Inverse folding.
């Protein structure tokens, strides 16, 4: 939900696209427990620090394709946008969620890979976009989860560093390095094959894109997380050639 909001606002989506996304929220999640009201409570003053510290406690372990970092960044953004929502129940729940992610393919990183500092948002964004571009090509026929999470994981650390969370972002450097190492290996023997998307020129900033997806295709929300990270990284990278390269194959992701 936070990804969808930021995607619309940061990229100045036109009203028809915003309205359609809001409609999809109502149709899919609006009446579910996901959107149930939380009880009112006092604001936790150190909510952001607690979330950042919970992330840093991961100790460089790669956890479920980086969802600990992805969720932490979004929570920190959300609490800064709406401080009154940082109640004890929410903060405790988010910190517990971050710590709950299990190690996943936590292999030694390839030391020949040099990941730029996350505080260098231009260099880091270009690095993540190039890795995602390569992953799209490697994983054709196997789904694009690796490429999509390269975008979301990498972007979350770059954005975290940009919003005064550089120390927390850097605490994830080894884990992200491991994810790049795993992704570069490409599909492995026995991996499940997944049918590729059909080519299309429609992109998430177009209301027609959301119309053609139908009313029941939000799933777990990757439909919002991938394009939010994609657009954010494209803007930070300031590289027109790289942007054209990614746009030419973005239909694999979206």
């Amino acid at each position: 939900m936070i990804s969808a909001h930021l995607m619309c606002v940061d990229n100045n989506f036109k009203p028809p696209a915003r309205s359609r996304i809001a409609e999809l929220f109502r149709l899919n999640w609006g009446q579910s427990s996901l959107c149930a009201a939380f009880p009112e409570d006092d604001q936790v003053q150190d909510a952001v620090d607690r979330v950042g510290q919970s992330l840093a406690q991961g100790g460089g372990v790669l956890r479920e394709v980086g969802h600990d970092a992805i969720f932490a960044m979004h929570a920190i953004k959300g609490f800064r946008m709406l401080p009154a929502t940082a109640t004890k129940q929410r903060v405790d729940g988010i910190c517990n969620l971050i710590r709950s992610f299990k190690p996943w393919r936590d292999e030694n990183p390839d030391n020949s890979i040099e990941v730029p500092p996350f505080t260098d948002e231009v260099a880091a964004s270009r690095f993540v976009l190039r890795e995602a571009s390569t992953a799209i090509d490697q994983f054709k026929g196997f789904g694009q989860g690796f490429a999509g999470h390269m975008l979301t994981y990498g972007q979350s650390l770059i954005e975290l560093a940009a919003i005064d969370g550089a120390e927390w972002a850097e605490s994830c450097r080894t884990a992200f390095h491991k994810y790049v190492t795993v992704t570069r290996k490409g599909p492995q023997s026995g991996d499940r094959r997944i049918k590729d998307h059909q080519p299309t020129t429609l992109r998430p900033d177009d209301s027609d894109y959301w119309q053609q997806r139908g009313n029941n295709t939000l799933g777990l929300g990757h439909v919002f997380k991938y394009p939010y990270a994609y657009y954010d990284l494209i803007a930070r990278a300031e590289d027109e050639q790289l942007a054209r390269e990614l746009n030419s194959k973005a239909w694999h992701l979206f």
